């Protein structure tokens, strides 16, 4: 049985955080450029110009692309044939400490509001997979968008059409708060917490990718069209693009429920992945 290199996991986590703090995810940067190219509104185009320029300056100079350096969210996929010689969660959190050394620390106790001082702990989701490798998906999640999250516990009689309406309404009610154009993650099914997990994991998809489920792919395109028709636009200044993408993940649920979670990213996706 192969032994996991937890020191390497720590190192790669730190490197990933340092990189994505300053470098917008490539498909997101390309989508912003396309939105700028298509925009008719001078005000919205100016906002998109600023977003694109900001991303380029951050990447060139090694500055954080946003002053909210976020909270680390990590999805760990651990092979069943892998021996863990220590605490895999501590290995990730040590990587977070190192990665955030030169970044703003925003994590604190929810009651006392005392800062932890190193942006730990990360929010870590763990899945067991086949093989003897560890893969990690890491996102720096800003809270201007996180605070706009919504969860709806529908009864089956309300149906999927009502779920679609509520997803659109969630973006409409968020308005300019999540720094649009947003990326919308949707979790369908499971339980309350499973729907929320799905909505967060959906945000790791690359913009421009297709959902492997034909019905969900069709729904994503429909929702994106309806959301862009809201006219919120870049930073709430109106225009063609209120969202860059809608991504949906689903999970079987109970016969008496239809959980729907909506989690948004701002215009700047800071997400990456690696395998060791």
UniProtKB/TrEMBL annotation:
Molecular functions per Gene Ontology: 4 iron, 4 sulfur cluster binding; fumarate hydratase activity; metal ion binding
Identification of the protein by name: Fumarate hydratase
Record domain Fe-S hydro-lyase tartrate dehydratase alpha-type catalytic: where: 11-273
EC number: 4.2.1.2
Source organism phylogeny: Bacteria, Bacillati, Bacillota, Clostridia, Christensenellales
Entry keyword RNA-binding: no
Pfam families per UniProt: Fumerase
Highest taxon in the source lineage: Bacteria
Enzyme class: lyase
Entry keywords, A to Z: 4Fe-4S, Iron, Iron-sulfur, Lyase, Metal-binding
Any coiled-coil regions, as ranges: none
Family: Belongs to the class-I fumarase family.
4Fe-4S is among the record's keywords: yes
InterPro entries registered for this protein in UniProt: Class-I_Fumarase/Tartrate_DH, Fe-S_hydro-lyase_TtdA-typ_cat
Residues spanning the signal sequence: none
């Amino acid at each position: 049985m192969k032994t996991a290199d937890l020191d390497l996991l720590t190192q790669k986590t730190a490197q990933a955080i340092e990189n994505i703090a300053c470098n917008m995810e490539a498909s997101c940067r390309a989508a912003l450029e396309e939105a700028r190219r298509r925009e008719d509104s001078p005000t919205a185009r100016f906002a998109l110009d600023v977003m694109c320029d900001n991303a380029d300056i951050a990447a060139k100079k090694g500055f954080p692309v946003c002053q909210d350096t976020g909270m680390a969210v990590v999805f760990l996929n651990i092979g069943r044939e892998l021996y863990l010689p220590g605490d895999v969660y501590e290995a990730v959190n040590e990587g977070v400490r190192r990665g955030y050394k030169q970044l703003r620390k925003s994590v604190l106790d929810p009651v006392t509001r005392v800062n932890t001082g190193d942006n730990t702990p990360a929010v870590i989701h763990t899945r067991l997979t086949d093989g003897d490798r560890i893969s990690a998906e890491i996102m720096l999640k800003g809270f201007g968008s996180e605070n706009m999250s919504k969860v709806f516990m529908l009864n089956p009689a309300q149906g999927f059409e009502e779920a679609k309406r509520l997803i659109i309404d969630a973006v409409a009610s968020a308005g300019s708060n999540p720094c649009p154009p947003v990326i919308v993650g949707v979790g369908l099914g499971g339980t309350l917490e499973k729907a929320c997990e799905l909505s967060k994991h959906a945000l790791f998809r690359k913009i421009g990718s297709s959902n492997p489920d034909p019905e969900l792919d069709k729904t994503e395109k429909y929702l994106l069209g309806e959301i862009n028709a809201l006219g919120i636009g870049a930073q709430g200044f109106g225009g063609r693009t209120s969202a860059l993408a809608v991504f949906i993940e689903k999970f079987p649920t109970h016969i008496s429920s239809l959980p729907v979670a909506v989690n948004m990213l701002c215009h700047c996706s800071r997400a990456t992945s690696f395998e060791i």
